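Check this:
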Amino acid sequence: MHPQLEQLQTTLAPYPWAYTVTVLCAVLLVAWLANFLTKRVLLRGLRQLLLKSPLGGAQHDHEVRLQVIPRLANVVPALVISAGVSLVPDLPSQLVTVVEALCQVFVVVTIALAVSKALDTINRSYEQRPDARNKPIKGYLQVAKIVMFALVAISAVATLIGAEFLHIVTGLGAMTAVLLLIFQDTLLSLVASVQISNDGRVRVGDWIEMPGQNADGDVIDIALHTVTVRNFDRTVTTVPTKKLVSDSFKNWRHMSEGGGRRIKRALLLDQRSVRFLEPEEIARFRRFTVLDGYLDRKDAELRAWNATLAERGAEPVNHRRVTNLGTFRAYIEHYLRNHPDINQDLTMLVRQLQPTETGLPLEVWAFTSSTAWGVYEGIQSDIFDHLLAILPEFDLRVFQAHSDAPVDVNLRRLDDTDPAPAADARPPRAAPPLSAPDAG
């Protein structure tokens, strides 16, 4: 013992516990000074070094990023107290043992928290890379955190009860089945995260649709246990990561990357309006420049067919003729072929579907050149606006159920000189001038 301590002990001998309290206060003062010097001197220098490193810079939040070192600085006073508590005289040995154990646990937990913050910093720095959305590492880092904190918990228990760390780990081997049952969700999520990361089935920014989980929107985060989806109604849905492996879902990413979004919509036509065209009507349709090629080709084909029937003496009823529906289908196809907003490299067709009690579906199948939602809807609406408006020129009608609105019926007495109205008479309609429609 140093002479100064012996002299202090002699001076305070008449006062029991005075020497013990004095030495204890001295240890606490040294611990405080160590903490002050560490945070005010050492941390300031390390802060400047980090700001000049690749992890620094104005583009990141340095206060968050530098949380690692302040946590490590808390280790210093704990080490001072752990070493100095044994120098305090007249303290019960059990108390000294407990204080040393608590200091050791504090040091281990503090280091673990600092490492956890360091892993968060690594993840934030990795997410700045252009290819980070294709290969996220957040799930792996979360697994590393789980393993680290599990080992820290075992170490803390072993330190507090005075047992060996390896003995506790060995004893946990008999509880493997129980641990697997407890952490089965974590293990399944880990496997799912690895699969998602390797095959790239889901990436941050993808538009996914998963009705079973009420998810329909953009992926904004991929973690170990959950994938966060921001729906188009601005709500957020968290989908278990394992669901993306075990359940089916729709990913619209390939549509966005493919350069076209599909239009698949049908016009329901009244089948009673389908009929053959008369020669003068065919001549009138030649004013549509987009139909010139179709009418010429169809005329040559039908002439050859009908000439063969005439040589055999077949009745005219067996002749083939042009229909208004077939001409309208040809018009739609040529209209789409000349439309600037339709991708001409992808599938395009106009087809009839099975007739139903609600009419004859005439379906348009094409792909827009833009995949943006608003632009796509505008192009699709413009196309069907035009088709509905041009439909009467082909003497076709859209099938539409009657509403429950009252029907006005006007009755008048017919004079003997008035001609009897035809059964299918319709009010005359002024036909608009025919001209070649624009392609837009």
